[in-house]
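Allow me, if you will, to draw on your knowledge of protein folds for a short while. The matter concerns a single protein, recorded as an amino acid sequence and a row of C-alpha cells. Kindly check, if you would, that the fold set down in the C-alpha cells agrees with what the sequence suggests. You will find the record immediately after this paragraph.
***
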Amino acid sequence: MNLGVSEEHEELRASVRRFLADRAPAARVRELMETEDGLDKAVWDQAGQQLGLQGLAIPETYGGAGFTFAEQAIVLEELGAALYTGPYLASAVLAANALLLSDDEGARQDLLPSIASGETIATLAFTEDDGSWDPAAIRTTAVKDGTGWRLDGHKSFVLDGAAAGLVLVVASTEAGLSLFAVESGPNPGTGGGLTRAALPALDQTRKLGRLEFTGVSARLIGSPGDAAAVLGRTLDIGAIALAAEQLGGASRALDMAVEYAKIRHQFGRPIGSFQTIKHRCADLLLEVESLRSAVSYAAAAVVESPEEIPVLASLLKAYASETYFHVAAENIQIHGGIGFTWEHDAHLYFKRAKSSELFLGDGAYHRERLATRIGL
C-alpha cells in the first residue's frame, strides 16, 4: 500500500488551503454560522469551477475528475482545518458514494454529473428522531404508487438538509431497506409534501436539519431491499472521511496552542518555555501525528484494500473523535480565560470536535461495532 505523499498531493493541499484562506476565512465562517444553511453559494461554485473539489473523487464517466478517495481525504483535512461550513461532506462524500455504490447505472448517469459540478447539493437522510445510527431503527416507509413510490416519515440530524436540492432517503419497504431520491430543485424549500426545519446545534458551523415526508414522490435507486449494504459501506467511507476532517481540525487547534504558547508571557518569559506547557504540546503533537498516520492508511485502504474498510472505519472514527476532542480542549486550557470567550476561535474548534464526535456514532458505538466486526 502506497502511503507516500506525492508532489501532486502537496500541490492539491496548498491550493485548497490558499482558496479557503482567501474565500472562507474565520470571519466569514462566523457570518455563515448565523445563517440557516451555512452556505456561501459563490464560494461553493468557485470550489467547483476553479478547483473541481465536488467532483474530485467522482469518475470521469459521471462528470467528475476521476481522482480517488486519497486525494479527497486531503481536501477534507483542509476543510476541517478551516471549519468550512459548506455541504462538502454531505454532497461530495455521503450522497455521491451512496449513488456510486448503488446498483443503478441510470441513477448514476442522471444524478452524479450535477453533484460533481456543484450545481446540485445533495445529502443522505437516514437517521431519525431517536438519533440512532443503527439502520434497524429506520421507520420511514415507502410504498409503491403506480409506476413510482411515495415516502412517509421523518429524518432528523440530516447534514445540510436545508441546503440540499437532492435528498437520498433510506426507507423501509416490504422488501427491506431501500434507497430513494427526492429532488426539490436548486432552491430547496417546503413543498410537495416535504417540510424542512433547521435543528439547533451546539456547533453552529455544522448545519443539521429535520425533514418530514408526507406522501412525497420519490425515485427508487437500485432495487427494493438492497439499501442495507449500500448504506453500510457509505457510512464506513463517511466515517473515514469525517476522520480526515477531524485530523485537520485537531492539527489547526494544535498550531493555535503552540503559537499562543510562544507569544503569551508570564513571569517575564513565554509560557511555552515552562516544562508543563512544553510537555503538553509534545503530547498533543504525538496524538495528532498518530492520527495523521491512521488517516493516511485508511484513505489508502479505501482505494487499494476495500476489504479492510469495515474494521478501519470504526477503529479510526473512535480514535479520531477522542483525539480531536482532547486536542481542542487542551487548546482552550493553554489559552486560559481568553480561550473561553466568544471572540476567540478556540471554542469553535472545541464545538466542532464535539459535534464530529457524535456524528456517525461516538467512540462507544464504534468500539462495539468494531468488536462485532472482528468477531468478539
The chain has three domains: 7-117, 122-225, 229-373. The mean pLDDT is 93.
